[in-house]
Design brief:
heterodimer, B: alpha+beta, 5-stranded antiparallel beta sheet, elongated
Chain lengths: 308, 378
């Protein structure tokens, strides 16, 4: 009986494309929802704007019977390169993303480290506190910050009542408000992967370091920190990459001098109706973001090899 | 059971007058309501290869971790070289440890691992480089200096761990199951190397092991630990030949035990009657035992001589061979006595293909000398 089932399974094996299908599915997903849309965006970025619907000219046009012209417009990319506004926006996004990532490391590392050192029964509640904000809409939480940061908002009132300041501080609609909003929003994305790395650290490594004469601070610097480097990189990427394209936070909390790519892209798309320019901005952003991602993947691969 | 250490050393530890390098005084360690270590006192002398032997969960590792400073005793004191270290943190103790998992730093090369402890001492770079080279040569892994731990085999990792723990020239080296992760052949070879290194450097080695053969082979003395208490501390030879308790007799090697009571004790000879054996047994024993005291007689299987017919002599038991286990070098025979009790004895297989003189269901008589068995009172 067992023999027959076994032989049947062997016969049916090639008919069930199980393994191939499972690996094909994410590729299919990626192609449908990432590569294809991006090709559209790339196509639009090489066209010329026009005051019609859609607001761009197709670069493949049939002029007469049988005569097809292809007109590629690289003007948008030239403009991005030449106009200070766009370079400024790229720099602005990069600056906000970098500084926010740095602040997330400085605040998030001690948090993740403390949770990983907490007694077993405390860890889950502490992690819940990190995850809890996700239960509320992201937009709502950013709006709440307006209430806290505005001139007659919670923060200013508390500070004035305490007599620390006499006049309300202008925080809302400045870059400081953007940093506060970004760090607040993205901190969990840094803490969680780092925590996952720290909790897996082999405690006997620290005992070995202590045994060899390293005091607690030295143990941390020479063992814990380098061992958690992969977690820092992963967490930093999860902060840096989305902040580069962040639109909602600079739009709601930032001011007129907050120059970021996401906001600019929105203006080009919806206010100026310049789809080709906006598309070229999007393409450039993607290329800029892919580079650090590839670096991270490379690093992760090396790490995975090492753990073999 | 072979022992590497020379026999002349055997008794010197017991009579040593000098301050022991480790003095453990009434140390107890509790986790919640369980006693991991229960009132242990122990002296370990300079230059010893000392083994803490016991089944898993007996508290031997906890005791070792207290010596390393990774656990603090609930009560009692630990002295190292005369200095009270009970509450001294690990990084201030003149002790190094080789961890069971080796605990090599994965992000450092072999050389960096070995140099780690030296760097904590802020030694000059030249000295560190020399010492690392010296250690690499000691454990014969010079070619692996630039490798990372994940590029090494289990045996190589074990050497790196040993080199790292020895690099600071500690007064004492603690070894937690040092050979536990190696396969049998490699383990046997490494046993000899460990002893050679220990004798060359003169450092006191304290090792934890559950493997009685490993402890017997390497140690100058063994502390047998059971349920947080010491059963016996002695040289491998004495612990095997003269076990102090029933537990010790059973844990190390194989033993036949006969429960009985003392009939008489004259001129260092005890006559014991055992209903289990169905006979009187005569044992050489110097400590005075009172008549009617309940005792156990212990006889190792290899101490028994066998004859192929029933005889009637002192210290002889008649029975029938029920089972034979062929182990290659020796065979183990199970003999059922008239009383129903089973007794084990071994015979070396001297001839390769000769007809075995002993076979199943054969009537045999087992005898042994009064000087080859022991009396257990605990």
């Amino acid at each position: 009986m067992m023999n027959i089932i076994g032989r049947l399974q062997q016969r049916l094996q090639p008919l069930v494309p199980g393994k191939g299908l499972i690996t094909a599915l994410p590729w299919f997903w990626l192609a449908l929802f990432f590569v294809l849309p991006f090709l559209f965006v790339l196509k639009i970025s090489l066209s010329e704007p026009q005051l019609m619907q859609p607001p761009y000219q197709d670069w493949i046009r049939e002029v007469e019977d049988g005569l097809v012209t292809i007109t590629l417009n690289f003007g948008n990319y030239m403009m991005l390169w030449e106009d200070d506004l766009y370079r400024g926006a790229l720099w602005g996004s990069f600056k906000v993303a970098s500084i926010s990532t740095l602040i997330c490391i400085l605040i998030g590392y001690p948090m993740a480290y403390a949770i990983s050192l907490a007694p077993q029964y405390m860890r889950m509640p502490l992690l819940m506190l990190i995850i809890l904000p996700f239960w509320t809409s992201f937009l709502l939480r950013v709006y709440a910050w307006i209430g806290i940061l505005k001139d007659n908002g919670l923060l200013n009132q508390v500070l004035m009542n305490l007599g620390i300041i006499n006049e309300p501080l202008q925080i809302l609609h400045t870059n400081i408000a953007v940093y506060i909003g970004v760090v607040y929003t993205y901190l969990p994305f840094f803490v969680l992967p780092l925590y996952a790395t720290l909790i897996r650290l082999d405690n006997t490594l620290l005992e070995a370091a202590a045994d060899l004469g390293a005091r607690p601070l030295k143990q941390f610097i020479s063992i814990t920190l380098p061992q958690s480097f992969a977690g820092i990189v992963a967490g930093s990427m999860l902060v840096f990459l989305p902040v580069m394209g962040e639109f909602v936070i600079p739009d709601l909390l930032g001011g007129p001098d907050t120059l970021m790519l996401g906001k600019l892209m929105w203006t080009e798309f919806f206010s100026n109706k310049d789809w080709p320019l906006a598309s070229s901005l999007a393409s450039v952003l993607l290329v800029v973001l892919v580079i650090p991602f590839v670096i991270m993947r490379h690093y992760e691969q090396k790490l995975a090899d090492r753990e073999q | 059971m072979n022992q590497i250490h020379s026999a002349t050393q055997e008794q010197s530890w017991a009579t040593s007058e000098e301050e022991p390098i480790v003095r453990i005084e009434n140390v107890t360690k509790t986790f919640g309501s369980t006693y991991a270590v229960d009132d242990i006192s122990l002296n370990i002398h300079r230059g010893e290869f000392f083994s803490l032997l016991g089944a898993s969960g007996c508290g031997k590792t906890t005791l070792l971790r207290m010596l390393g400073g990774f656990e603090t005793p609930t009560s009692g004191r630990i002295y190292i070289d005369g200095q009270d270290v009970t509450h001294v943190p690990p990084y201030l103790r003149p002790i190094n440890m080789m961890f069971q998992s080796y605990a090599l730093f994965p992000h450092m090369t072999v050389a960096q691992n070995i140099a780690y402890g030296l760097k904590q001492e802020r030694m000059p770079d030249v000295v560190i480089r020399e010492r690392v080279a010296e250690m690499l040569a000691l454990v014969q892994i010079e070619k692996l200096a630039t490798r990372k731990p994940h590029q090494l085999s289990g045996g190589q990792r074990q050497r790196v761990a040993l080199a790292r723990a020895l690099a600071k020239h500690p007064k004492i080296l603690l070894l937690d199951e040092p050979l536990g992760a190696l396969d049998k052949k490699l383990r046997e070879r490494t046993q000899f190397e460990l002893v050679n290194i220990q004798e060359r450097l003169g450092i006191t080695f304290i090792t934890v092991t559950h493997d009685q053969e490993e402890a017997m082979t390497m140690s100058s003395r063994i502390a047998l630990i059971n349920e947080g208490r010491i059963e016996q501390v002695d040289s491998p030879r004495r612990i095997y030949e003269f076990p102090a308790t029933r537990y010790a007799a059973n844990f190390i090697g194989t033993v036949n035990l006969f429960n009985g009571y003392v009939v008489s004790h004259e001129n260092d000879m005890v006559l014991i009657h055992s209903d289990e054996a169905g006979a009187d047994i005569l044992v050489h024993h110097s400590q005075l035992l009172t008549p009617d005291m309940e005792v156990t007689v212990a006889i190792r299987p290899e101490k028994i001589t066998v004859r192929d017919h029933f005889i009637d002599e002192p210290n002889s038991l008649n029975g029938i061979i029920k089972e034979i286990a062929y182990l290659g070098d020796v065979s183990i025979y199970h003999v059922e006595l008239v009383t129903g009790k089973r007794v084990l004895f071994t015979q070396p297989n001297v001839l390769a293909l000769a007809e075995q003189p002993l076979t199943w269901e054969q009537e045999v008589s087992l005898t042994w000398s009064a000087y080859s068995c022991g009396v257990l009172t605990q």
